[in-house]
Amino acid sequence: MASGISAPTHIRDRRPPSRPPSAVCWCTKRYPWMDFGDKGRPPMRACGLDFGTSNTAAALPDGTVLPLQPHTQEARLFRSVLFFPDDEQDIYAGADAIQRYLEDNTGRFIQSVKSFLHSSSFRATQVKGRTYTIEELVAVLLRRVRDAAAGPMGGAPEAVVLGRPAVFTPDPEADALAQQRLLRAAELAGFQRVQFLIEPIAAALAYEAQLTRDELVLVADFGAGTTDLTLMRLGPSRRDNPDRRQDVVGSTGVRIGGDRFDAEIMRHKLLPRFGAGSTYRVRGFSDKRLPIPQHILAKLLTWHEMSFIREKSTQELLDTMLATSDRKAEIQALYDLVMDNLGYRLFRAIEAAKVRLSREDVATVDFEEARICLHEPITRAEFDTFSQPLLDELDACTAGLLAKHAETKDIDAVFLTGGSSQIPAVRQLYVRRFGEERVRTADAFTSVAEGLGRASAHLSA
């Protein structure tokens, strides 16, 4: 595998979008309201690309989702992860990165990079003595996806309709920064024409393809990092309209995704197994004891934050806690979790239990590594209780969108997509508000990619 990142020799359309980043942007003779000024240019090999926090998917202009990793169980999903082994020059991506990391985790494993696109404080990171900007890290992933698409497409795509959340972040400047970085990453990956489409609108286009009558539809797209909501008029009488602006009634988003549901399991069920509630003796004071600092416990809620606990000052604190804790076994588990770089594996076990709870009443977080032995049961009722604050946020976001644009009775259908749409309590939230008969679902992980693919049809026409 290639280890470097090289810019394409010919890059066009580098200028930033002229509309606000929250707008729907994509140029087309069919959709002139999303024009980047590309009229008259020759058609190109094009695709739609859904770059997600956890997974990435790509689709053809007819909506066919591509098998990016045909030899894996989830062939149409390319995991949005990178691994830089200490003892190799190669960079591994997708399922290969996970496999290589699980074989030997000595190296740098990078996940959820999309979550940092809006952060001006995250500019670059050092990997084995080389500085990678956030744009370059994303570009590695997008280039691997582009290369994987080349086989089934008969050549690498030159143009792309790229999904983006309705809201990366409420801060307009940070939101614009995120889209600018994503644009630059796509250019570095070799795409010559890059256009953006809000992800829930892409999901709406996928849903629209199956409609036989016009509907006012609320689309809820649940990603790993964010949930996006769009209210849109869809149907056969509108499908071929040259201008769809008037069909987008409203759009909003909230930073709630699958990762936060995982974090609640960690917070409420597993933190005590890693020392939460224990105390340790302060060095130099024989009778003074303190609990584990909150900043350490907070970093345990997301696996990619755990690396910060490995800093030298925190390692010294871990050594002190290990020597003086009133619950040595739990602190030993914490030490191994952090120092052996086991966070990703633990959160895979947490996610697996969460997925089982979507179809079963009880699941177990099973994890045995180093000196850690976890078999922690969790019931769906417990999970629903842990998740209630997140559900309340989702409900408030939905209510806010409706308050501005429509009454509940006016909504013909609610289309749920994305991994967390499979959580029974999430679905039930919308069933309570709209009724079972109006709540629809499709492929939870590829609806956005399908819609983005359909949106790319004009580029290859």
TrEMBL record:
<dbReference type="GO" id="GO:0005524">
    <property type="term" value="F:ATP binding"/>
</dbReference>
<feature type="region of interest" description="Disordered">
    <location>
        <begin position="1"/>
        <end position="21"/>
    </location>
</feature>
<dbReference type="Pfam" id="PF00012">
    <property type="entry name" value="HSP70"/>
</dbReference>
<dbReference type="InterPro" id="IPR018181">
    <property type="entry name" value="Heat_shock_70_CS"/>
</dbReference>
<dbReference type="InterPro" id="IPR042054">
    <property type="entry name" value="YegD-like"/>
</dbReference>
<protein>
    <submittedName>
        <fullName>Molecular chaperone DnaK</fullName>
    </submittedName>
</protein>
<dbReference type="InterPro" id="IPR013126">
    <property type="entry name" value="Hsp_70_fam"/>
</dbReference>
<keyword id="KW-0547">Nucleotide-binding</keyword>
<comment type="similarity">
    <text>Belongs to the heat shock protein 70 family.</text>
</comment>
<keyword id="KW-0067">ATP-binding</keyword>
<dbReference type="InterPro" id="IPR043129">
    <property type="entry name" value="ATPase_NBD"/>
</dbReference>
<dbReference type="GO" id="GO:0140662">
    <property type="term" value="F:ATP-dependent protein folding chaperone"/>
</dbReference>
